[in-house]
Amino acid sequence: MICLFTAKGVNHMFYRPKNIGTALLLLLISLCTASATKADTVTLTGFGNTLWEGAPVGPYPGTLNGNSTSLLCVSYDRHVTAGVPFEVTINALNPLGVSNALYGPQLLGYQQAAWLYDQMLANPSETGDIHGAIWRLFTTGVPTTPGSDWWYNLATTDTATLAMIQGYDFSRFRIVTPNDRSINGQQEFLTTVPEPTTMLLLGTGLAGVAARARRRRKAVKTEEA
């Protein structure tokens, strides 16, 4: 035991390990205990009511650590069972966060997916085609339609859109990555942490893209007629 005396004369007693190995072991145990955190958990509560080429599309309802949220699947070739919880890691949509993601480190791909997610919210009638375009960013073998081709090309090759994406605010997006990264692991998702002011600005910024989408739909209908 070591006795220390403060300026006030209080006697403090400390335990001194008999050897350096014991001291290091105690320090390691202390650090592990202090840094231990509960794993984040996701549970899907459904898959929505919209199908595209036989697959459910759109943000899926679910819970994140028990709190209700919407989750947009970016993994076409992976599967999740509704009602079955699974552990995940949550990262911001930035270079460091993407480096820990399932399809990292392609930052631009996740940015394009997040941008398309916002277009989906602004153009609900285009949900299937937009979701198909998002899946194509990360997975091969995704079905294609004229509509999904249009959205995919808009996000990946259109100069004006790419410039918009470069200046886009992705701070409210989170990447929800399954801890099981094996081929049999769960899907990866995008989710958002919305703020009222951000969503208001977002709504005004998407108006032009929504107008372009409406013109595209009219053009397709005219060609079909």
Describe the model.
There is one protein chain. Helix content is 43%, strand content 20%. The chain has a six-stranded antiparallel beta barrel. The chain has a domain at 42-194. A hairpin with a 5-residue loop joins strand 1 and strand 2. The protein contains eight helices and ten strands. The radius of gyration is 24 Å and the shape is globular. By secondary structure, the chain is α+β, with helices and mostly antiparallel strands. Mean pLDDT is 82; it is low at 1-15, 30-37 and 196-201.
Pairing-aware structural class of the strands and helices? alpha+beta
The number of helical segments is: 8
Helical content, roughly? 40-55%
Taking all residues together, what is the mean pLDDT?
Answer: 82
Query: How big is the Rg?
Result: 24 Å
Q: What gross morphology would you assign? A: globular
Layout: helices, strands, pairs:
Layout: E1 2-5, E2 11-14, H1 20-35, E3 40-44, E4 51-52, E5 55-56, E6 60-64, E7 67-73, E8 86-92, H2 95-99, H3 107-122, H4 127-138, H5 146-156, H6 159-166, E9 173-178, E10 189-192, H7 196-205, H8 207-224
Antiparallel strand pairs: 1-2, 3-6, 3-8, 4-5, 6-7, 7-10, 8-9, 9-10
Helix pairs in contact: 3-4, 4-5
Can I get a quick summary?
The protein contains 8 helices and 10 strands. With about 220 residues, it is an alpha+beta fold. It has a 6-stranded antiparallel beta barrel. A two-stranded antiparallel sheet has the order 1-2. A two-stranded antiparallel sheet has the order 4-5.
Which keywords apply here?
10 strands; single chain; alpha+beta; disordered N terminus; two-stranded antiparallel ribbon; 8 helices
